[in-house]
Every structure is written in C-alpha cells, then in structure tokens.
Amino acid sequence: MSRSPVPAHATVLFELTARTQSGNVKRVLSGYRPLYAIGADEWTSSYHEFIGVPHVETGGRARADVWFLAPEQYPGTLWVGRVLKVAEGSRDVGVATVLAVHHSVLVREGSS
Question: Exposed (0-12), middle (13-18) or buried (19+): which is 69, by Cβ within 10 Å?
C-alpha cells in the first residue's frame, strides 16, 4: 500500500520493543501495518509512514504519521500524550505516544 492521499489521522512517537519470534532484532519499515489498542477491548488496523527515517529497529523509536482503519468508529479516543499499545495479532510489539491528532472525529473533547 502506498501513502494515503488523505492527511494522516495522527502523528505518534512509535517505539518498537519486541524482537522477532526467534529473538533477533526486529525491523519495521514505512508502510508497517500493526494493530492499535484504540479503546477498551477495541483494536484497529493502522498504516505507518516514518518521518525522517526509513525504518525502526528493536529498542528504537521514530515519529510516524498514522492512518487508522475507519476512524469514525472511534470518536474522541485520542489526545496528545495518550500512550497506545501496538501489536501484531495477539503479540505486543511496542507503544505509540500521540504527538498530534489530525482527524477531528478522533479528538477527545477538552483536549488540546
């Protein structure tokens, strides 16, 4: 999948904490599509474009523009500073700290 023609839904600081299943350093590239814990027992698919770097390795972090599948299904769930679990299937692989929310439906009321 190539970069979406619509603006990113959010910008995050993505931190990759997991290694590969075999214990090696894991590397993810722009275009990475993990799951995000967006609500109580709710997960959504995402698409990442890393900013200023082509990839992130285990123990590393980078800013990323993120698009969510069907953001209108998760109104008011994001705010600056929120930390979200990131997973591949049932396996936690990292965290993402929200730096900016660009999609108005996702913005939590009262947040700046």
Answer: middle
Surface-to-core class of residue 21, CB atoms within 10 Å of its CB (0-12 exposed, 13-18 middle, 19+ buried)? exposed
Contact 36/97 with Cβ under 8 angstroms?
no
pTM confidence score: 0.92
How far is Cα 108 from Cα 68, in angstroms, rounded to an integer?
Answer: 16
Residue 109: predicted pLDDT: 82
Whether 53 shows a pLDDT value over 80: the answer reads yes
| Class (C level, CATH) for 10-101 | mainly beta
What pLDDT, on a 0 to 100 scale, did the predictor assign at position 4? 64
99 contact partners, CB below 8 Å, separation of at least 6: 10, 11, 12, 13, 63, 80
Give the pLDDT of residue 89.
93
